[in-house]
């Protein structure tokens, strides 16, 4: 079953913050985040492992609450380049390099000047 | 450094026709996979391979075949195209860290 992402879409002004959530009904081992710009392939952002580790990537960070099977992606002081659709992908086991990710339906983020 | 190369970028088929989507990677990754992307449904796993000679089904395998004769290549075959297979297809390979590298995609329309 696909993880549920919320919100489905969000519009921000440049410099504002955003939070994108991903929740699953299954026990998770890892959560992966990708960003896809229109007409392009998804691009890797980060992986979070079981253990509640929070990771960062430029002004984009994420957390993973394994007890709640939820992950949140935080975009701070958003830039125009952050526009795109964000997908979370979930994995239920430690299959590093052999992930069979189940992706959410995506959150479309639009940043306006 | 080419990464993951997919061909063709666009394809139009008539119902019942067959075709092969090509995928090649030059990163020596063992794991490769095919996803389809439909509006509002995200990416769904079709087939995957953990190495040469080994393939398995993903979430939506019906109507598709794969083979993996070399580490580099992982073609996806549509045996008898149906309008329901109209989609954008992405091939991906996985680094040992778990990071997926996607090809540029194939936009397929079946009339």
What does this structure look like?
The complex is a heterodimer of chains A (about 110) and B (about 110). Chain A is mainly beta and about 110 residues long. Helix content of chain A is about 0%, strand content about 50%. Chain A has no helices and eleven strands. Chain A has strands spanning about 5, 10-15, 20-25, 30-35, 45-50, 55, 60-65, 70-75, 85-90, 100-105, 105-110. In chain A, the strands form two sheets. In chain A, strands 2, 4, 5, 9, 10 and 11 form a six-stranded mixed beta sheet that branches. Chain A has a five-stranded antiparallel beta sheet with strand order 1-3-8-7-6, with no helix packed on it. The radius of gyration of chain B is 13 Å and the shape is globular. By secondary structure, chain B is an all-beta fold. Chain B has no helices and eleven strands. In chain B, strands 2, 4, 5, 6, 9, 10 and 11 form a seven-stranded mixed beta sheet that branches. The interface of A and B includes residues 2 and 98 of A.
Report the structural category of chain A: mainly beta
C-alpha Rg of chain B, in Å? Answer: 13 Å
| Unreliable residue runs of chain B | none
Q: β content of chain B, as a range? A: over 45%
Bulk shape of chain B = globular
Number of helices of chain B: 0
Are there runs of chain A of 5+ residues with pLDDT below 50, and where? none
Give the ordered list of helices and strands of chain B: EEEEEEEEEEE
